[in-house]
């Protein structure tokens, strides 16, 4: 069941000397204003910092802690890819709260070759108890990013069972330079002043540290704290907001905040695990294989069928195929549609087969995903994976829609077969 406890107000301990890690992901200092929570210590607003003295970490050259290959940058904070579509982070990373337009948010993952894969968000969800302190949000990506680890589990135990554990944490952000200051004029032009120390903004690398978990003094179920500074003088700072930690079995929590002198609190997985799993890995109702022959052309295109159930564009020009998907499940109407496999035939020298999923309501409302296209021509099939579509209106109709190029000397292009997966969240 979702966590229900309402915490009481009580300040935390230690000051700046206890810090070790700051994980902020953006050079913008105004991006981490916390959504108000009336019954908990106030976090520092408007900072972009990362693990103080954190270890520079390239997850692609490391053979351990490979989960860090899923750590992404989001505006002002850090996030972690749970799978190719969902990023987990903190609600206070979004100063406009649940009304934040997800289209203004981008997640970026550094890949093994140093390039960056980025995707705009298409959905932003806040935990139902975010105002009471469950500081966790989910972003669904418009164009899924294949993470370094296909899926990451959440820690399955209780917050109490985490006490005394050592966890590995990772994030992006600024670094304390050691120079003292009273305001920004005391620091170099590329630095800012916080807590009497000059800091540099995000310098690019992912930074990591080990922390020992201790009991939270305000709510020992919803949150836990780190015993900071650690032996290396490290601790988390405001820009680490939304970052996660790993105990060897799963993600143990999401970086929340502290007070103005101690930034070492995480929201424990026990408080948000059921909610996150119900959305990021919804209950599967039905998976079916459907032949391309289920598809129909739009506006009278020339369609032919193969002996194995393929649907081909027999005309000379581009045509659009609509492939219906029966929206049923063994336990009711599905509200999530995704397509883990779609096999297309692209035999055109210059044009591609491009497909998306859509949901259409009788009222006229249309929800579509972005197109995923084949790459180059081939005599054999190509496998595509499409983004998911979510629609909770029971009368909406799910479909696969593909644009298929016309016939060429190499042969006909079309849809071989598709595998819709229907789920409920």
TrEMBL record:
Residues of the signal peptide: 1-31
Family matches, as SUPFAM superfamilies: Trypsin-like serine proteases
Source organism superkingdom: Bacteria
Keywords carried by this UniProt record: Disulfide bond, Hydrolase, Protease, Signal
Biological-process GO terms, alphabetical: proteolysis
Domain Peptidase S1: 51-281
PANTHER family with a match to the protein in the record: FI18310P1-RELATED, POLYSERASE-RELATED
Family stated for the protein in its record: Belongs to the peptidase S1 family.
Protein name per its UniProtKB record: Trypsin
Taxonomic path: Bacteria, Pseudomonadati, Myxococcota, Myxococcia, Myxococcales
